[in-house]
Amino acid sequence: MTDVxxxxxxxxxxxxxxxxxxxxxxxxxxxxxxxxxxxxxxxSAAATTSPTAATAGAVSAGxxxxxxxxPANVAPAATTAGDLEVSPSQLAxxxxxxxxxxxxxxxSIVSWGAAELNWTATTSAPWVQLSAATGLTPAQxxxxxxxxxxxAGVHDATISVKVAGQTFPAQVAVAAxxxxxxxxxxxxxxxxxxxxxxxxxxxxxxSGAVELMQSGVRGxxxxxxxxxxxxxxxxxxxxxxxxxxxxSHYCERMGRATLIDEIEDxxxxxxxxxxxxxxxxxxxWPCGFRDIEYGVIASNYYLSARGYNINELExxxxxxxxxxxxxxxxxxxxxxxxT
Length: 339
Ligand SMILES: [Zn+2]
Fold this sequence. Notes:
By secondary structure, the protein is an alpha/beta fold. It has helices spanning about 25-30, 55-60, 210-215, 230-235, 255-275, 290-300, and strands spanning about 45-50, 80, 85, 90-95, 105-110, 120-125, 130, 135, 140-145, 155-165, 170-180, 195-200, 220-225, 240-245, 280-285, 305. The strands form four sheets. A five-stranded antiparallel beta sheet has the order 2-3-5-9-7, covered by helices on one side. It has a five-stranded mixed beta sheet with strand order 4-11-10-6-8, with helices on one face. Bound molecules: zinc ion.
């Protein structure tokens, strides 16, 4: 194995989609804005509308995208070291002095060689706990922080992941904000919101656009292929988000190189309607098909990727932004729970 210092982001992306940001900067923005909302103040939700449904009712559950207080061009994408790629490169937790803190968050560990690799993961501080310290790639482990054990303040730590003989580990920056007396929130969601409810329509359809507009809200519309549907420029002009749904609507496993092509060519198509790559920030997995490796690849391009057939409410601090929970529209099995 060639042992080289880790780079962030992991590899030169074909089109330089993402660069890594300083988490400290994100936290400073959140705190400086006088953000005092509780992490658990409200739940977020992501749901999906039917691509074929044109009724307002069908759209009421809709999809979304709007995670991350970080700007679209500074997503905490993957980090690599040696043969490992680990995503995300940054985690943030928040809590109040003497109380618990935000829920667990996921860290994906993959390798792109032919062989599975034996990895070990360590933390630089005892208040960061991992669900596993060793394993084989690909793996997804959970990181939790014991905020109750920390005094008020901002605390930094590092999760290091490496394989035997590797000098420079892949590292994940961990920040925990513990507020002395008022709830403080890590700005996981855009504009410091505590959560979001979003609606999305797949497959290049524009179902629900009229109903959303009449309700004074906007949704997310995701396309396949490499050419945006005729209505997409107007949808973007009306304030809706345009996102990715891959070129070929694969609902099964494909190779890494194929997935990268599917993502990049599809983004290029969406940009024809948005006019800027910075507005294409979310993916909807076709048929909900994804795995750990897919999530790591997608994290280099998107702030979020919506899962499907989950039918659960998402956490205000999602464990995995590359597989956001959602509700199906009422006519698509498995059906969402009755309201
Ligand atoms: Zn679809």
